Amino acid sequence: MEKEQNPLSNDANWPLYFEKTRYGNPRENLVRVIDLFDKENFQGVCIDIGSGAGNDIGYLLEKGWKVIAFDPEEKSQRIIHERFSNHPKLQFTRANFKEIPWQTIDLVNCSFVLPFCEKDYFDSLMQNIVSNIRPGGRFSGNFFGLNHSWNHLSLVSKEKALSYFQYFDLEYINEIEEDKISALGDEVYFHNIDVVGRRKS
Ligand SMILES: C[S@@+](CC[C@H](N)C(=O)[O-])C[C@H]1O[C@@H](n2cnc3c(N)ncnc32)[C@H](O)[C@@H]1O
Predict the structure, then answer these.
(1) Which pLDDT tens digit goes with each residue over 106-122?
(2) In the structure, which protein residues have their CB atom closer than 6 angstroms to any atom of ligand 1?
(3) Which ligand 1 atom is the nearest neighbour of the CA of 52?
(4) Distance (Å, rounded) from C-alpha 50 to C-alpha 201?
(5) Do 130 and 165 contact (CB within 8 A), yes or no?
(6) What single string gives the DSSP state of each residue in 31-72?
């Protein structure tokens, strides 16, 4: 029997995913990048793509950042509204990757979202991300590697992932491969590449 597709690729399962993750911690890579900005005593504006249940948004707001957040899901919008009820430093818009109105920014955060970009738009999305980060600004996010079991998503080699950052100093790269249980309880071979980078001045 053919193995069932990853439920996360089915839009109908995002609401369940958001319920399961809404009381979770911010992603480690986000904490890492904010630590780097803290060392520079800097708080600015972050574009958070694919915000989900908003755990990263909560951390950014706590740390004094302004957040411009995007997610296409109505349930994400509802949870983020419940959690942060019109916080003055949060602007949330329902938008998919192609609909993001880009602007020059201090930080782009992409936690577990890039693999869900359509394969034929992936390069354009990455170009939009890296070209809109100001000199001295940063990227934090992750890619799924070629061995990840959800191979219908946009998977990239480490070399390909890093090739987008030719104008960046890479401050953290971590590639990991391991068996894992997903948030929705599926067995998954997890191949992940975390990246934090600072755009050269
Ligand atoms: C695995 S979740 C990650 C959520 C959150 N960033 C986190 O770290 O928990 C992936 C997110 O990507 C969003 N997403 C899926 N397809 C998308 C698309 N085409 N454009 C933008 N976001 C999308 C989903 O709604 C979901 O919130």
Answers:
(1) 999 999 999 999 999 99
(2) 14, 21, 27, 50-52, 55-56, 71-73, 76, 96-97, 111-113, 116
(3) 27
(4) 27
(5) yes
(6) HHHHHHHHHTT---EEEEES-TT-HHHHHHHHTT-EEEEE-S
Q: Are 170 and 162 in contact (CB under 8 A)?
A: yes
Q: Exposed/middle/buried for 111, CB within 10 Å: 0-12, 13-18, 19+?
A: buried
Q: What is the SS3 assignment for 148?
A: coil
Whether domain 7-199 has CATH 3.40.50.720: the reply is: no
Q: Which residues contact 5 (CB under 8 A, 6 or more apart)?
A: 152
Fill in the DSSP letter of residue 149: S
Protein residue whose Cα sits closest to atom 8 of ligand 1: 111
Where does the pLDDT of residue 103 fall: very low under 50, low under 70, confident under 90, or very high at 90 and above? very high
